[in-house]
Input
Amino acid sequence: MNSLSAESRQALVQFLKENSILKVLDMRVLEGISPIFSETEYGPGEVIFQPGDPADAVFIVRAGSVEVSQGDPPKAVAYLASGECFGELSLINDTVRTSTIRVPETATIIRIPKAAINELRKRFPEMTTTLAEVINRRAAGTMPFQAAGLQGNLAFFDLATVIQTVVSSRQSGLLIFFGRSGKAVAQLTMKDGAVIHAKFKQLSGETAVLELITRTAPLDFIFERRQVDDVPPDENLRRKPPHMLLMEGARRSDELPKLMKSLGWPNAAIVQTGEVAGWQKLSDDSETIGPQLWPLLNAKSSLREITEKLPFDRYSILSLIEALVNRGAAKQTVTEEAAAKLEQTKVLPNSAVTDKPKGLAGGMAASAGDSRLRSSHAMNAFHGSSPFLDTLKYFNGIMTNTAAVLGKSEVRSTLAQALKKAASFNPNLAQLTVNQDTATLEVGAISPEFVASKDSSRALEYLLRAFMEIMASRRG
Output
């Protein structure tokens, strides 16, 4: 906690007058009460408060950003930037803290004691009105940025939550990402909270967004508020609800590491062994990707080279390659050039996927379902792992994080509806149950025989598609 000089305190008062909930107060009032303000510098990972702590103050972000997490285990649901306040709801309701506020990178935080806030509310009714407006906006899912906006490095921030936070702000501007060289490598254009244009390396549109979510590189980012009327919108992207993009990105973030590992990413090559008829039957995008992919397979390009040359995201490309291998139209190999690179770098083909991505479900999938699954007969019967149970854990991770964004009630009811629909596809799914507290799936009375069957994982994938389709129809 810093003791401020007269000059620093005057600068603080000016900041509060221009950027915070206290701007409704006269400058002379702010100057008079400024001695009660304190300012503290926080570093990476420091927690300002957590559930159960007393609500003894309201806080305002002067510089940097803070992460808001909810649930058990905690899941980041938003980021608050310069000028924004937090801690007001518990103080006004006179309850203990219910969220965790953590500093991802660095932040300067102003603290206003509870007694001071209560006195201001008594003397200045406009303070009560302002606080009520903040609470109502957040209850409605809108948390607008102030002043400098949101910025940081993805080594400290969860990208999907960054995007969701910008979407929730319903503002317009550019979310720009920078590589180690300082050059911009990706840009999302937002208009009134919707993603209308996206560019990431050689990718554009929905493909660029999905690829960006699955990446784990520690890119710097900044959200710049500005008018974007001069940016031509991508109609396909604009029609895609942002929450559906994030859900699909979460699914791909969970599945991509398995694909990369099984195919020998990044240096393995996939070579042709047969002909292909009917590209559209192999995957959703195979009719578009296939004709461009086939010549690269014939040239024995490495997986990394293929993904860098094609204008499609890695997940879509690798899914099609896996389908070709499974059909017997291609097989995995290692070219002489790739083998030389492996020897030089001493990097194993699957080393790039030892860390799980930080997407919407990345890092959360295991924790979301492990405690329930470990206690189930099905889990014990298969020593804690099977393709079905692994898929179920990933599925529950997506449900947990979607509930953090859209609310447990909506996810719970949609999941129940999707489960009923999917049970007509595979009756065994009717043995799964929806946990009413967590809005996730439990194995219930499902049989070990079904868990071990080849159809079980496919049935869960069908269930996820049904869930996403129903959610999309509900939210227009």
Observations:
- The CA atoms of residues 266 and 304 lie 5 Å apart.
- The chain has four domains: 6-139, 151-247, 268-346, 365-474.
- DSSP finds 19 helices and 18 strands in the chain.
- The longest strand covers residues 57-64.
